[in-house]
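User: Show me a protein chain along with its predicted structure.
Assistant: Here is one chain, sequence first, then structure tokens.
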Amino acid sequence: MGQCWLIIDFDRRETLGGGKMCEFFWDGAQDIMNALRVPAPFDAKIDELLRGTISNQQASPLCRLSQELFDLIFDELEYLDYYQSFGILAISCRAVLSHARNRLVARIGALHSHALAGHRLICLGEYAGGPSKLPAEILGADELNKLRTHAEAFGLSLNLYEYALENFKDSDVLLTYSSYPMPFMAFQWSSKDFALCKSISRPNYPLDRPWVLRNLSNHEYVREDAAKALCESLPANPHEDIDLGRPKFSHFLLVNICWSRVTSTAGCASEGGDLSQGHWAGDRFDIVLMDILTAEDEEGSWKDVTDEVGEVIKQMWEAEVEALS
């Protein structure tokens, strides 16, 4: 029947999904990718809205209030409905927005903490065995001691899969990536006002700039635009009655973080390549704008592995399509 697999975040001691490989692998892991994506700085978006003159607006008695009084007003509005009334007042004019700027940046930053960015991730097979069978240095000394203590207390073998299944909680971070609620009656607004309010109610993820999936442990990365282009070029599932879409950007992560001593994947995916020894298993990841990677890579130490990983996915998918034909 094949082994079960469990996607684990070691740093939060949480599980992120799993099951039989053929039940979840080709669905991808978009929620995990969302939780890895680090928003672009939100302050730049606010500063863009602040460009222009505000001298005529400061003639209003309200706009002549001190920052301390504005903070008291903002506190009351946030107490009223957390964000909506405060956000509406903040975008009423540039003068008010200038007083609300720092609070807006802090609120949006708290909305999306990219909770998985920088964490150790692995898709662990139930036959992975104990620490000696895992990738080197995947566990710290304290984690190894907890695993040994658990095994000795229950007379069990050192099996990380079983330990995680029993002791790690199901993650709730995959459900937290949204925006603040839009104000009541917003449907009566003009399209311009609606778009403006919407723009300050969610983190900043520019769609017109390239993003990269980074392996922070070994300085390798995958370009999202190229990865998606490859996925879209692959043949479609030949059977409409089988709910199986093309590979996705998330597969560039999944194919590299699986780990087990046994290659069994219950007849799914393995025909195109061995998933059981992923060379990214247990590494740390994030998704950032390409600009950030370029700025940090002053020594040219980062390696683009988009084509290399893409070839693995291509072979696996073609084997899957052939098996379905």
